[in-house]
Design a protein that fits this description.
single chain; about 300 residues; alpha/beta; Rossmann fold; N-(1-d-carboxylethyl)-l-norvaline Dehydrogenase, domain 2; 13 helices; about 50% helix
Length: about 300
Amino acid sequence: MENIAVIGAGTMGNGIAHTFAQFGYNVNLIDISQTALEKGLKTISKNLDRMVSKERITEEKKNETLNKIKLFTDLKEGVRNVELIVEAATENIDLKLKIFKDIDEFSNKNTVLATNTSSISITQIAAATSKPDKVIGMHFMNPVPIMKLVEIIRGYNTTDEVMETIVDLTKKINKVPVEVNDYPGFVANRILMPMINESIETLYNGVAGVAEIDTVMKLGMAHPMGPLQLADFIGLDVCLSILNVMYDGFKNPKYAPCPLLVNMVMAGKLGVKSGEGFYDYSESRKAEKVAKMFS
């Protein structure tokens, strides 16, 4: 594989594009919004600058990486003549099924179709295509350029050849592939999301405050980030979507989203992306923090 298309220029999509390009692959980054594409490329450039400043890569390597990425708003044009397509759109089943139906039509018959879904059935997504044997899950972790793990999820019809190809490719971009089976939430989110949900329940029930809950988990369980702060970084809407997928899939009340999470999402408090979640990420709050540093 030399040519890869990545669908979605958001946090996960631009991170996946960055990683493949850094390892020498030609990447077509696709999004319906030109603004989102430009923002995604700017993010990649900033992250590469950070790597240059830490002497992890050279300025020349940064420029080579950026030159490997081409931007497309036309899906048909973007997926033409690539060997792998990685879908990294919003965690919405209807949207993903539509995308896979389209890329199945627009791509070559031998192109492998991968999804970065964090919870949705690979088999269900594959059923929207005429080649379910070539559909597979590649669940990258955020931030993609740094995190080593990639969950590799085999759908019901995924062939051994496709599985081996993607496992090998994952190793070539210096990631660690872990093969898991196609059940709601896979492994990472089946374990993580109930913990986050229980943390929100703990807050909802008045057991402790946000900072206190996160501090207990950081200092007591050696987590680098508390679960409520992590939820903010993931996106509370994404957390809610994943919990709903698992609740629908298992019909088990332990996966039912906490009412506080539901209300926060309805109120538009989605975490970092909206400027407010369990913590305040607004510009005014940033200015306040800076002011305190110099007071």
